[in-house]
UniProtKB/TrEMBL annotation:
Keywords: Hydrolase. It catalyses: 6-phospho-D-glucono-1,5-lactone + H2O = 6-phospho-D-gluconate + H(+). It holds the Pfam family Glucosamine_iso. GO terms for biological process: carbohydrate metabolic process; pentose-phosphate shunt. Belongs to the glucosamine/galactosamine-6-phosphate isomerase family. 6-phosphogluconolactonase subfamily. Its EC number is 3.1.1.31. The gene is pgl. GO terms for molecular function: 6-phosphogluconolactonase activity. This is 6-phosphogluconolactonase. Hydrolysis of 6-phosphogluconolactone to 6-phosphogluconate.
């Protein structure tokens, strides 16, 4: 792993969302100031959508972020028809994307199931991998852009993106995007970045709030639980890995015994 994991604990989920929105706006604005552009990989789920809603109201984003120079990617998607309410893209549009002046050419949506890939999750994953590789530049050995920030919601079972404990997708070492079949959380068919693609990000930020995440957070932050049992423990960035929690998620598993 690259560097130590940093853990920041907030009082509650609203404070987590507000503070992370300010942090994210600042980090992306700094990247734009340095390079002209910035990139973020979005996560779905409760905390991911809460963060996007907070970003829509964020004074820091209003003051500093140039939405038109931001590339937006997704870490995973539920493989459902365009506009389905359970798609991460649909939820992100409602929370933020429709309200800000993004450049449509910089919004890199994972293909829906009713796209030209006609229900073929592997073909859709391959198409997204091709889009990532094109954005990564001319060097054919670099297949994923060095995202400035890659966001991951941590599920109660420690899943991140659509990489679930014990699922074969976790073993992928070559492909950057895969079709995930038989996911234990609906819908069963999904698209996901793989661990090698996640680890190409400069910074990986993992989000968890609520008591139902406490066991997962404790397991993932324990010494080297390994990717198969705890996918969240295997997600890290090249220069930074930041765990952003609320107090309930940081509380650890309930004490057992006398
Ligand atoms: O299904 C998904 O779940 C995870 C975690 O969601 P949460 O609601 O438990 O926070 C999310 O990160 C992922 O993007 C999503 O597809």
């Amino acid at each position: 792993m690259t560097g130590a994991r940093e853990v920041v604990v907030h009082t509650g989920k609203d404070e987590l969302a507000r503070s992370t929105a300010a942090r994210l706006a600042g980090r992306l604005a700094d990247a734009q100031a340095a390079r002209g552009t910035a990139s973020v990989v979005l996560t779905g789920g409760r905390n991911g959508n809460g963060l996007l809603a907070a970003l829509a109201d964020s004074p820091e984003a209003r003051a500093r972020l140039d939405w038109s120079r931001l590339d937006v990617w997704w870490g995973d998607e539920r493989f459902l028809p365009e506009g389905h309410p359970d798609r991460n893209h649909t939820q992100a549009r409602e929370a933020l994307l429709d309200a800000v002046p993004l450049d449509p050419a910089r919004v890199h949506v994972m293909p829906p199931s009713d796209s030209r890939y006609a229900g073929d999750a592997e073909a859709a994953a391959e198409a997204y991998a091709t889009e990532l590789a094109a954005a990564a530049g001319a060097d054919p050995t670099v297949r994923v852009p060095a995202f400035d920030v890659l966001l991951l919601g941590v599920g109660p079972d420690t899943h991140v993106a659509s990489l679930f404990p014990e699922h074969p997708a976790l073993r992928e070492t070559e492909r950057t995007v895969v079709g995930v079949h038989g996911a234990p959380k609906p819908p069963p068919t999904r698209l996901s970045l793989t661990l090698p693609a996640i680890r190409a990000a400069e910074e990986v930020w993992l989000l968890a709030a609520g008591a139902d995440k406490a066991d997962a957070v404790a397991l993932a932050l324990a010494a080297d639980p390994g990717p198969l049992q705890a996918p969240a423990a295997a997600a890290y960035g090249r220069s930074r890995t930041l765990w952003l929690l609320d107090q309930a998620a940081a509380a650890g598993p309930p004490a057992t015994g006398a």
